[in-house]
Sequence to fold (322 residues):
Amino acid sequence: MFKLDKPQKVCQITNFKVGGQFGENPPLLISSMFHNGDKILESRKEGKVDWAKAEEYVKKQEALEDLTGIPSIVAMVANSVEEMARYIDWFVSISDRAFAIDMWVEKPRLEAAEYVAQKGLQNRLVYNSITPWDKDIPNQVKRLKELGIKHIIVQAYDVADPSPQGRLTSFNKTMEAIGEGAFESILVDTSVMNLPAIALSGAANKLVKEATGWPCGVASSNGTYMWKQARELFGTDGFAAMNASGQGCSSLFWSDFIFYGPIVAAPKMFPAVVSGSVMAATMAFHETGQLPTNENHPLYKFFGDFVDKLKAGDEQALPVHD
Fold:
C-alpha cells in the first residue's frame, strides 16, 4: 500500500537527508520567517525586525531538530534582493545550518541566488522555487547552474488540471525545461490549495515519487492557515489542534518535506510530525520488514524498546496500568 516499486532518490543537503522510501527518513520541516503578518517583522519598508526574537525562534527550531531527529530549515520571505540579503547576512551570523529563500517573483529570486553565490553559501541554500508560472525557466536554470546552486524546489501544479495526475504532468513539463542532472537535489512541492486538498497533494506525492523517484512534499500550512473560519469555530486551542493534526497527517502522505508555516509554531509542529513519522516507519516495517536506515530517526530516539521487539518478532504486550 505504501511501498513504492521505483527506487527512490535520497538527497543530501548539508547534514540531513531528504527523500527515500515511505518511512525511511522523517520529513524535512520548513518554517517561514518575515512573511506578511509575522510579528517579528515590525516594518518591511523600513527594515525593522525584532532580531532578538527572530534568533530565539531559530534556536528553538534547531533545539527541536536536535531533540527529535527531524531535520528543519528556515524559509525567509522577501520582496527584493536587498531585503533578502539583510536576512541572509543575519541568518548566517547566528547559524551554520541550511536555509531557504522564499520569493515569488523570478527576477529578485535569481538576484538573491547570485547574492548567496557571492557569499559562497551555495551548499546551504535551498532555492524556493522554480514554478510553472516562471517566464523563462531554461535561462533561470542556466544561471543557477552557473552560480553553483545545488538544491532547488519545483512547484507542481496545473490550473487546467488540479488533479494529482495534473501535478505529475506539470512536474514532467517543468523537468523538460530543467533537464536531468542539472541539480543535486530537486524537491517537488505538490501545491496544497486548502485543508481537504492536502489529501490530493499526498496522492500526487505518491504519483510523482513512483514516476520519478524525486522527494516530494506539501505546504500543508497553506491548507490549515487558509481555513480562516477555524479560529472562530474552535478558538485558539482548537485551531492549534487542527493545525498540528494537518501537519502530522501530511507526514503519512508520502511527504519528504513539509512547509509547516510560521516558525513560532515549531513547539507544536515537531511533536505532531514525530507522531506521523514513527507511525510511517512502523507501517513501512509492517509492509516490508525493514526498519529505517537513518539512525537519527525519531522511532529510534523515542521508542528503542519497541524497535527491539519489532526486530525480535515479539508480540506487543498491552501496557500495564496501576
Remarks:
- DSSP finds eleven helices and twelve strands in the chain.
- Residues 19 and 215 are 5 Å apart (CA to CA).
- The chain has a mean pLDDT of 96.
- The first strand starts at residue 10 and ends at 13.
